[in-house]
Amino acid sequence: MKSIVTCAVGLLSLGAFCGDAQTVRMTPCGGAQVSVVQAPPSYNSWPMVQTLGDKVVCAYSRGSAHTIDEGKRGVFARTSVDGGRTWGAEVCVTDDPAIGEVTIGKGLDDGGAMLLWVRRWGRKKGHDLYRTTDGKSFEKIASPTFSPMPMQVTDAFKVPGGGLMSLWFAGAYRNKEGGHSWGTLTSADNGRTWKQHVVEDDLPKSEWPTEQSAVHLGGGKILALARSEGGSGAQFQITSTDGGKTWKRARTNIDDVKESTPSLIYDATKGLISNYYYQRGAKKLKRRVVRADFIFEHPTEWPAPEILAEGAEARAYDAGNVNATVCGDKHLLATYSGTDCDCAVFLVSVAAP
After folding, report:
1. Three-state DSSP class for 294?
2. Which of 50, 94, 163, 331 is the most buried (most CB within 10 A)?
């Protein structure tokens, strides 16, 4: 099957950008392939992708505009049985008309079921965790109460001997001074209950790591990358050598990104970490690959990136936020591009490095 979007054409559909004709597209570069998970209309965004047995599940949020707390915003999902080339019918995960619901993290439990973090924003703020074994039926298994209440909870990953772990961050984007924090959540019962730990608090906005992605490297070592706030700041690298009990944070040399979510994949066989991110404004989906044992101690020596795909949006903040998963010898990257009233979710497939 040919890629739905090609380098030569790269067109998905013509939609309305508040009355003006616009093109929504994601153009692959090199050997990448692109499929459309969810097309316009509406603001389809914030996808989370997870390989689930022999299937691939992509969950995403949809509202009428780029507004996080509108009641029209719900969470939906589609499943692929051919490695992300084509997608089945949409199912509703949750769509409460009183609140805005957004996909914010994914993972697998010990039994291989997919977990999906959903943020509730509006009159009933909080976070819910859903579980699915088939990508079609989702069960809410937890609605934990946290203090401080995270703005977001990120992908769940396994820490041997420590159960599941997710990172979180809390604060307010418009506050430049203190009051920002981040930390860990751990679960010993496959996500039914969670314990919260604060790693850093009362941080200024300039030192606040947000939208973290983490991988466990073995031997108690965890490496995470995080978005930085304030426009053009470089990504943070956060490391632990004791299974997440204590952490060290440093700036990286990755500054070709504008407040956009990274997503990491660790290949234990090859010892390689792939860092995927979307450069907002420049409209480029990028990857940097490095040996994990080297970069763990050298956060400012990430190698140069390669461009995997290019989006097309009128405003920088209406696109971005990559989420990645492994499917055989491929890495699958969910992202989105378009406008705040006509945005599409795409899946970009690339060969694993």
Report:
1. helix
2. 50
State pLDDT tens for residues 4-31.
322 222 334 333 333 343 568 899 999 9
Token duo for residue 353: 């490095």
Which DSSP category does 312 fall into?
A: -
Q: What is the pLDDT of residue 320?
A: 85
- Tell me the C-alpha to C-alpha distance, in Å, between residue 47 and each of 84, 155, 246, 332, 344: 13, 12, 30, 12, 10
Domain range spanning residue 278? Answer: 13-351
240: amino acid identity, one letter: S
Secondary structure of residue 7 in the 3-state scheme: coil
pLDDT tens figures, 212-241: 999 999 999 999 999 999 866 899 999 999
* 204 part of a folded domain: yes
Tell me the per-residue pLDDT of 176-219, one tens digit each, with 9 for 90 and over. 889 999 999 999 999 999 999 999 999 999 999 999 999 999 99
- 6 falls within a domain: no
Q: What are phi and psi of 188, to 5 degrees?
A: -100, 5
Quick one: CA torsion of 131, 227, 335, 119, rounded to 10 degrees? 40
End-to-end C-alpha distance for the chain, whole angstroms: 23
Q: Is residue 87 part of a domain?
A: yes
Whether residue 307 contacts residue 296, with contact meaning beta carbons closer than 8 Å, is answered with no
Please state, in angstroms and rounded to a whole number, the distance separating the CA atoms of residues 7 and 9: 6
Task: Enter the tokens of residue 12.
Answer: 């998905």
Q: Is residue 309 part of a domain?
A: yes
